[in-house]
Amino acid sequence: QVQLVESGGGLVQAGGSLRLSCAASGIMFRMSDMAWYRQAPGKQREWVTTITSAGNTHYADSVKGRFTVSRDNAKNMGYLQMNSLKSEDTAVYYCQVIMNFRDYWGQGTQVTVSS
Question: Which of 1, 2, 30, 104 is the most buried (most CB within 10 A)?
Answer without folding.
Answer: 104
